[in-house]
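hiii so my PI (J.) wants the whole complex modelled not just the main chain, which honestly fair. so below is everything: two entries, each one labled with what it is. i double checked the lines twice but i was tired so who knows lol
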Amino acid sequence: MSKMPHVMAISSTGGHWVQLMRLRKAWDGMKVTYVTTDPGSGELLRQQAQEAGEAAPNFATVTEANRWQKIRLIKQLLQITWVLIRYRPDVVVSTGAAPGYFAIRLGGLLGARTIWIDSMANAEELSLSGQKIGKHVDLWLTQWEHLAKPEGPHYLGAVL
Amino acid sequence: MIFLTIGTHEPFERLIRAIDEWCGTTPNPPKVFGQITDEGMAHHRPKNFEAVARMTPKDYNLKFQQSDLIISHAGMGSILTALSRGKPIVVMPRRGHLRETRNDHQFTTAKHLGDRPNIFVAKDETELPALLDRTLETLGQHKQAPVSQDAPPQFTAALREYLMTNTFAPNGIAHGQNGKKSFET
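here's the output for the full assembly
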């Protein structure tokens, strides 16, 4: 059994984050750094850790941005670069969207293993970022079995 | 109480207007509380129910807990949260051609998840009032056990396996030291 990796779990707020939270059992007991766009999520994580008698996980926020907000995207990209350098995760895992795409591209360059789990909201075609990330990510997953292909994306299950 | 939520990202005026109208024309409408984004508040401030632009995750959880029924766009966040609280949810998908979101992914979400217990789909605002009336009438029958807060254990176990060992078995795909994919034969 290898040493437990340090996992960075990153997504935008809303549905992507809800899906990421449903996967927590996968990195239970590992060192985790959560990154999202809503500071309120950090408060909730700290509260839940306290209730469970566990140490609060690392938590960082980055600017929210969609693909049309270029300046905000650049700011988000710089913040993600900083967060990756500061925390140096062994693995980056994301359910989407822009923050996950950036973190996987940059995290991969910095030597981290990377996992993209395309949102369950994409039942008939992969998200745009999900399509583009395919050739840059180590483990490329869809949550719909009928979208899986031999060359990827692969299917290991869904959050529901 | 009914909790109306349209997600954190974009307004959804078609749904807000439909609910406002429904509250205005239904005799003794139930109390509705809405989370409708900043733009939503600016474009159409509901006359017949209480609404706020945004909520902290903590307040959002609390409102969810206090509600008997959720009305929402067909976003995965709202759907998953409703199911994990055991709350019935009425969804109306945002449409791509109306520019309510970037494409029709919510329409396909509704199509693929609409037959699950506790999820009720109105394709558009014309179907919504009757669906709401029907769902409210039979609310007592929709008591479903909450689904787990966690993804199915097979999925998280497979991810955990990958995190620990850098390989995953189901499709016989292994990842080499350099992170490049290699196929086992």
